[in-house]
Amino acid sequence: MKTARTRVLYLMVGFTLGLPLAAQSDCKVILDASSKVLNTPAHMNITGTVGSLTTNAEMIYATGNIYMKIAGKWSIASTTKDEEQSREKNRQSGKVSTATCRYVKDELVNGEMAALYSMSDEPNKVHSQIWISKVKGLPLRQEDDIGAGDSKTHNSTRYDYGNIKPPI
């Protein structure tokens, strides 16, 4: 049970932090939003589900750190600078996702107009819907389906940008 829960958390965090995407135009919008959130104080509530196991986590981007709350305890998971460097290293080495992205439609998310994009990365079995603020260019919501067969994971992420402070 603990191994499955740990796997869910790593999938939640890894995908929420972002995949390096190819420069395809619609993927570039998603990549830009994912990069922008690293330098914007943000609070994310994440729910991950594998089969009947559901795990909740929170992340906060503030003061150059990425904080994560697991099992009621906050810790520093990484820094935004480390994450940016990792993305750049992957981009330079050619380790980018083979995802295809497309604009779907505009929708309201918590009273804010957002552009809904879908992303599909078949080799990695990742299918996502990402709502990006039309005004701020930041992600507001994200739904991810990862994997196939019995090991399928669903992550749901909600982003908040108001009054964000480091938790520790």
Describe the structure.
29% of the residues are buried. This protein is 26% helix and 45% strand. It has one domain (2-160): outer membrane lipoprotein receptor (LolB), chain A (Clam). β6 (112-121) and β7 form a beta hairpin. It has three helices and nine strands; from the N terminus they run ααββββαβββββ. The radius of gyration is 15 Å and the shape is globular. Residues 1-13 and 19-23 have low confidence and may be disordered. It is an alpha+beta fold and 168 residues long.
Task: Describe this structure in a few short sentences.
Helices cover 26% and strands 45% of the residues. It has 168 residues and is an alpha+beta fold.
Which helices and strands, and how do they pair?
Elements: H1 2-17, H2 25-38, E1 42-50, E2 53-62, E3 65-70, E4 73-79, H3 80-92, E5 100-109, E6 112-121, E7 126-133, E8 139-146, E9 153-160
Antiparallel strand pairs: 1-2, 1-9, 2-3, 3-4, 5-6, 6-7, 7-8, 8-9
